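COURSE: Structural Biology Practicum
ASSIGNMENT: Worksheet 4, Part C
STUDENT ID: 0417
INSTRUCTIONS: Below are two proteins. For each, the amino acid sequence is given first, followed by its structure token string. Answer the questions at the end about the second protein only.

PROTEIN I
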Amino acid sequence: MLLGDMGADIIKVEKPGCGDDTRSWGPPFVQKESCYFMSVNRNKRSIAVDIKQPKGVAIIRELAKNSDVMIENFVPGGLDKLGLGYEDMKKIAPSLIYCSITGYGSDGPLAKRAGYDVVAAAMGGLLHITGNEDGDPVRVGVAMTDISTGLYAHGAIMAAILQRQKTGEGQKIDCNLLSTQVAVLSHIGSNYLIAGKEAKKWGTGHESIVPYQAFKTSDGAFLVVGGGNDQQFSSVCKVLGMEHLLNDSRYTSNRDRVKNRRPLIATLSKRLSERTMAEWLEAFEGSGVPYGPVNSMQETFTNPQVIHNGMVQEIEHPVVGKIRIPGSAVRFSSQSIQNSEPPPLLGQHTGQILKEILDYSDFQINQLKEEHIIEDENLPQESC
């Protein structure tokens, strides 16, 4: 989707009958269209091809010859059996960049396992450090391991394209959920690898910075306040009218505050519970302190800065009409990112792509339809 936002022609190859699994992930649905699917599939064209049949394989191989990049997320070895693995594709398209996204890697003891976000998050340590201090492991609210893997793949593909401009040759890129999750453990991973310190859950708090967490206000809302350095902590104390804490030797430095976390958090929590969210937001404004409310979805998408940043995009969908989805997170000074194409219907562009890219005739396309090799949105869908 990110590559599509930047102008790439993305051809999404789907299974005839049901397509991408996320098409069925709901509710909520809008006229049988999954909101989940629509959230990550803008600026793509859909072609429905049965790759278990030789003629379907032939279509993919022809498309690969005419493409810059091929991205696949089969269990390792799955496409090799069909003649669509990297070694097969390299022979017919030497300049092709072939990106495999798997659960655990293209080889190794766990390579054949199916990969899912929450499983990789569990095995990669994220669930171990997420949740209340004395509570059960908690899944992050969105599929951050999946999304982060997509971001790594996006960057790797762009780098491979630049490399190909120098050498004229393609290459294989291996991305996997487990490696991504381990890589994004950041300082938590380094704390263990360097200092031998096992990680734990801190709720909304931070292991190495105090204060840096959510506090409950008098009206039941939660406000996140951070004091990442001594100056910010001083500002927090001034806003709260608790300057006496600055003379307390337990809180002189961040190291001291981390050491004496419990009494300090208890003191700050009591003070922040004495006024409403609105009152504290007004008090912290202009203080230089990092702060912000814990927002609902309604509050997030009506936030003036979110709207100003163009994070709410409207697209006209061919079935459900106008839809709103989260927009692109980046801006360019010399060009604009166009999010104009809606998430595709299953097989919506099959005939178009076969004609436009592969020069198939109407007769050939109709024959493939009759043989159930391909499908488009105008044909009745069969169940998977």
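PROTEIN II
(use this one for the questions)
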Amino acid sequence: MEEAVIVNGNPNQKNIAYSVQTVSGGANNTFAPFIEELRKNGTSSKRVIIYCQTIKVVSHVYGVFKGDLGGDMYVIQGDPKSSMVEMYHSRIDELNQENIVADLAKSGGNIRILISTIAYGMGVNCQGVRTIIHYGPSRNIEAYHQESGRAGRDTPALCTAVMLYSNVMLKYCDDDIKEYAHNNTLCRREALLLHFDANFSEVEKPGKPHECCDVCQRSCKYNGDSCSFVYFPSLKSSSSSEPVLQEREISCNQLKKLHAKLVYLKTSFSKDVLDTASVKNAPLFASPELLSGFGDTQIDQALTNCQYLFSVADVHKYVEIWDPSVAKEIMVAIQQLFSDTNFEDNFSEEEDSIFFSFVFWGSEQEEELFHNLPEAFFLSVENSDSDSDN
């Protein structure tokens, strides 16, 4: 090619502040502040896109908003076309997709919360979006940068991109997004730009450290000697005061008894997966242990850290657990054996069943997400009706 010209552009999104936080509870607790804001402020609420890994998780989160808001979800009572919360994926009807896209193209549209898979993707004209939340990480950095970049397209005002994750949710992501999530020392903006070989030194630094990312926020003195900027309200409030680390002494006999209880739990969870699949007449595409999220790895982690497990939050901190009901059952075993916790079973039935959102066909990313699983995990893939929007 003669007289070819190479055009390079810096991919920096200068008005987006980045944050990564672990998630340990169900969607009810996680999104409670957003539900309350909608109920209080209606269409004056900030516009938010919540990206989820699968169609069924989208449906679950949408159900949480709809169940809590009831009639308050609509601008006009009883009119579904005036909903302030919508879900978007490849299996909703085409007319509904068009209506959602059209509404989001107007900054003053009714929709304030969009819960979506990657189906709401490239080429969309979204206005007024100030926050992007990933309820589960993107597959890789390229996807995350593209999806988080849908905030602040129509304004120079500060917007936020928050990734919520657990170790289990990261398990089948690419290494680059794992490193990004686990990083707590390098500026997140710099980490993103390094991936694209962009020159970070050429990037104009935000006026305040918290306008860059949660890592840089540690050096922010916006309020004199500290910074109170909140990236994600429900998690910020729960983590603002760290509890004193508790620790118990464990005897060899207690350790053996706990091991026996956890092995029993593993068997029980696997049976629950098989029973649920049978009732739903749904094909499994991985081993019951993988689908329940509780296997030998989690048992080893629980035994290694059992001296620190006094609450469900502790279980999520030290054990690779996503489903709140699994963490709850581990705490039941801990409480029965040691009787030194204040654990109470306060999870709703809806939250208890969340991990089944991940185990059956219906994901837009399943084929990509599980591409590298060992062959032994696959039981049946011939009849998959999953589709991809990538």
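ANSWER KEY EXCERPT:
Q1: The first helix runs from residue 27 to 30.
Q2: The chain has a mean pLDDT of 80.
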